[in-house]
């Protein structure tokens, strides 16, 4: 299988309401030799206001994001989809990608009427190089050392991690530079710790994760709690009653007697806390797992391996206790209310009907005049709305005056929402407040110039929208 390593730079952290502005990827053969590359940028969509913090971190100026010579977001995403589709099947790799880059890419595909599940269908799979690096640092510190912050705490951010291991990183927060840094880390681990690389590959497959979690009496799992990484020895106690990909595993160092005395309600409360004794392993998310024989003494503390396995035996004999724990873990899962915003409805209403899938393919193969006619034929309200929005963004002249005015009013209300409204998206007043706060914290030089230029852009946009000339 080939590999695709990719990275995105975005206007902010909100996967539903920010956008990708820079995408880079390399395709390699099975030996990680690069055989193809892709790098694309695009301009801002009309309804997106960038985060001042994102502009500060990426050192992008607003003029770079509004450059009319750049392709539109739709044009960029369409080309990304075409190329990645031609590179399949592949193992798609990113750094912290399963919680960030992958979600941005999925939602970009969704909002542009493309298949959002390109990276894990038709023989492809996905995995996260961040997990690979954590696993390597834990098991083979002779191969990879974590970076340290100013307080001596371990850090697994891409640039510091690479530099801590003797790699020169020319740029940070540049998509292609980050891809090549990630590629270098993978090469080191694959060459010097092939057993870890093989294990990493194995757990990119959902079926392999399911088999391992089910068959092993106990194993280690790596997870993030807030910004802190921790490793726990666990055993499987069951799965979600409606989502088989969610496997519940109990921390074997937990106080089992205490858990047994808690009421069902108290168990649920505990499972919602940072001290939760149950880890949810998502079998389709390439979890970071390893076998018990690779555990270090500190992983077993305050027990030893024999005592941990005795606890597994005792637990397995008490099926009613296991079921109580499983029910508590499931009851503690976050339940998200339905969202009225189309950007947040990808997972909410399931897959589109077959006829809408066919319409999506047709939508991308015809001229804009025909796209406008097709848009109203979508049965799924999500895709009808997204199709009409794309037409408004790209060719508003093809809309009726009334429909164009409706979208223009919606754009005005979205972009001019008061900062105190705490909208799901970033409005112009909210961005202005953020930028002024950043400036007052003490910027100078080019950083200060960029933020002042951004404030000027916000003022210009606000005037344009107020005059009713927003496109």
UniProtKB/TrEMBL annotation:
Domain ExoI C-terminal: 338-462
Recorded GO MF terms: DNA binding; metal ion binding; single-stranded DNA 3'-5' DNA exonuclease activity
UniProt cofactor(s): Mg(2+)
A Pfam family annotated for this UniProt entry: ExoI_C
Protein name: Exodeoxyribonuclease I
Binding site for Mg(2+) 2: 9, 178
Cofactor binding, note field: Binds 2 Mg(2+) ions per monomer.
InterPro entries: Exodeoxyribonuclease_I (IPR023607), EXOI_SH3 (IPR034747), EXOI_SH3_sf (IPR038649), Exonuc_1_C (IPR058561), Ribonucl_H (IPR013520), RNaseH-like_sf (IPR012337), RNaseH_sf (IPR036397)
Residues of the ExoI SH3-like domain: 194-333
Organism: Rhizobium chutanense
One biological process term in Gene Ontology: DNA repair
């Amino acid at each position: 299988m080939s590999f695709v390593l990719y990275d995105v730079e975005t206007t902010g952290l909100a996967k539903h309401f920010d956008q990708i502005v820079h995408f880079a990827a390399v395709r390699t053969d099975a030996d990680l030799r690069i055989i193809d590359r892709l790098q694309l940028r695009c301009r801002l969509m009309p309804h997106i206001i960038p985060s001042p913090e994102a502009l500060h971190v990426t050192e992008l100026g607003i003029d770079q994001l509004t450059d009319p010579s750049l392709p539109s977001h739709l044009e960029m995403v369409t080309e990304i989809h075409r190329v990645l589709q031609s590179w399949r099947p592949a193992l798609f790799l990113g750094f912290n990608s399963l919680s960030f880059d992958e979600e941005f890419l999925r939602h970009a595909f969704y909002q542009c009427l493309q298949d959002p599940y390109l990276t894990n269908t038709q023989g492809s799979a996905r995995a996260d190089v961040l997990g690979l690096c954590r696993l390597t640092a834990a098991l083979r510190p002779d191969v990879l050392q974590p970076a340290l912050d100013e307080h001596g705490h371990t850090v697994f951010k891409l640039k510091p991690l690479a530099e801590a291991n003797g790699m020169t990183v020319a740029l940070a927060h540049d998509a292609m530079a980050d891809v090549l840094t990630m590629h270098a880390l993978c090469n080191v681990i694959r060459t010097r710790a092939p057993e870890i690389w093989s294990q990493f590959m194995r757990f990119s497959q959902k079926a392999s994760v399911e088999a391992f979690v089910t068959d092993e009496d106990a194993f280690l799992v790596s997870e993030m709690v807030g910004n802190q990484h921790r490793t726990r020895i666990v055993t499987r106690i069951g799965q979600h009653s409606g989502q088989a990909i969610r496997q519940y595993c109990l921390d074997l160092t937990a106080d089992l007697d205490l858990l047994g005395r808690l009421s069902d309600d108290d168990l649920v409360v505990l499972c919602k806390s940072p001290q939760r004794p149950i880890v949810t392993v998502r079998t389709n998310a390439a979890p970071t797992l390893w076998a018990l024989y690779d555990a270090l003494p500190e992983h077993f503390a305050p027990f030893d391996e024999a005592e941990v396995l005795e606890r597994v035996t005792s637990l397995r004999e008490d099926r009613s206790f296991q079921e109580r724990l499983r029910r508590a873990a499931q009851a503690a899962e976050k339940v998200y209310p339905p969202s009225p915003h189309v950007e947040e409805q990808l997972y909410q209403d399931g897959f589109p009907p077959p006829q809408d899938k066919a319409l999506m393919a047709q939508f991308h193969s015809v001229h804009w005049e025909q796209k406008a006619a097709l848009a109203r034929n979508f049965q799924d309200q999500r895709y009808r709305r997204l199709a009409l929005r794309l037409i408004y963004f790209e060719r508003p002249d093809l809309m009726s005056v009334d429909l164009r005015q409706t979208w223009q009013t919606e754009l005005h209300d979205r972009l001019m929402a008061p900062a105190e409204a705490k909208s799901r998206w970033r409005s112009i007043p909210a961005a202005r407040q953020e930028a002024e706060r950043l400036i007052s914290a003490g910027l100078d030089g080019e950083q200060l110039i960029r933020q002042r230029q951004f404030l000027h852009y916000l003022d210009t946009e606000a005037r344009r929208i107020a005059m009713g000339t927003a496109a």
